[in-house]
Design goal:
Number of strands: 10
Distance between the termini: 44 Å
Largest sheet: 8 strands, parallel, barrel
């Protein structure tokens, strides 16, 4: 048997096209319902997420479509995911420290697109913080541009999340995040992830950008019914998915199961595919 060269290895690793991976993240009959458990990259031992692999295994039994994960979680749950092949995985490949001081903090890549392809995930995700200093903004734009270029080689979708770190979500911040979403789009993002800006703003963003928009849940707040309403409104407005973690797994177990089941119903009943 001849020795496999680097180019041959690349052709094997990239045989899954970007379209194939996008259609694993986004199913034809429902909005994506993704449970993020990658928070440890930035915040360490988050309450109720001290054992992330156990959290993933718990939600494999629920009506979700995938997970947002770190490299460590991918490695720890390979067998679990192999036994649940329909589940999508979105790999967080960057981090920012400290989130409590964005003006003086810094971001960095913690994994590459090639790493993601070799790990067998379906998408990579990066932050685009905008309440950072100007030099950091430049570095972030350069970093995302480099990742988008590498992703084209490896046929890997890129999700970008515009965000104002550690900042109250005032109407002004929500408007500003919409502007930064356009920056992410022009940098070449395949998917925009944004904290729910309200149904009207979500509809506007979905209409303006011809790529999928997914809505993030954010930190635990309100009751389960308010979370369900936000999820339902976001999907009805055109969001192609929701990424809800702390507002789900930081609630009591019985409430969590009810909320997931109701969000899953909304992911089908309210969904219209836009791409």
């Amino acid at each position: 048997m001849s020795k496999i060269t680097l180019s041959e290895d690349y052709s094997v690793a990239s045989r899954l096209s970007t379209s194939y991976r996008m259609n694993r993240v986004f199913r034809p009959d429902r909005a994506a319902l993704v449970v993020p458990i990658d928070h440890g990259l930035v915040w360490g031992r988050v309450p109720q997420l001290e054992a992330p692999a156990q959290v993933l295994r718990r939600f494999l039994k629920e009506d979700v479509t995938g997970f947002m994960v770190s490299t460590g979680i991918v490695k720890a749950t390979e067998v679990d995911m192999a036994q649940n092949p329909a589940m999508a995985r979105i790999l967080a490949i960057d981090a920012f420290w400290p989130t409590s001081a964005p003006a003086t903090g810094t971001g960095t890549l913690v994994a590459s697109v090639e790493d993601a392809a070799r790990l067998g995930v379906d998408c990579v995700k990066l932050l685009l913080p905008w309440n950072v200093n100007d030099a950091e903004k430049v570095l972030y734009c350069q970093r995302i541009g480099t990742v988008v270029s590498a992703a084209a080689k490896w046929d890997m979708p890129v999700m970008v999340e515009p965000v104002f770190l550690n900042h109250p979500r005032t109407p002004e911040i929500i408007t500003a995040e919409m502007e930064v979403a356009r920056v992410a789009y022009d940098l070449g993002a395949d998917i925009i992830k944004i904290t729910f800006p309200g149904p009207d703003a979500t509809a506007k963003l979905c209409d303006e950008l011809d790529i999928p928009v997914v809505v993030a849940g954010g930190p635990l707040s309100g009751d389960a019914k308010s979370t369900l309403k936000d999820v339902s409104d976001a999907i009805a407005a055109g969001a192609q998915g929701v990424v809800v973690g702390r507002k789900v797994w930081q609630r009591p177990a019985e409430e969590t199961s009810w909320l997931i089941a109701e969000m899953a119903k909304a992911s089908r009943a309210k969904f219209k595919r836009l791409w």
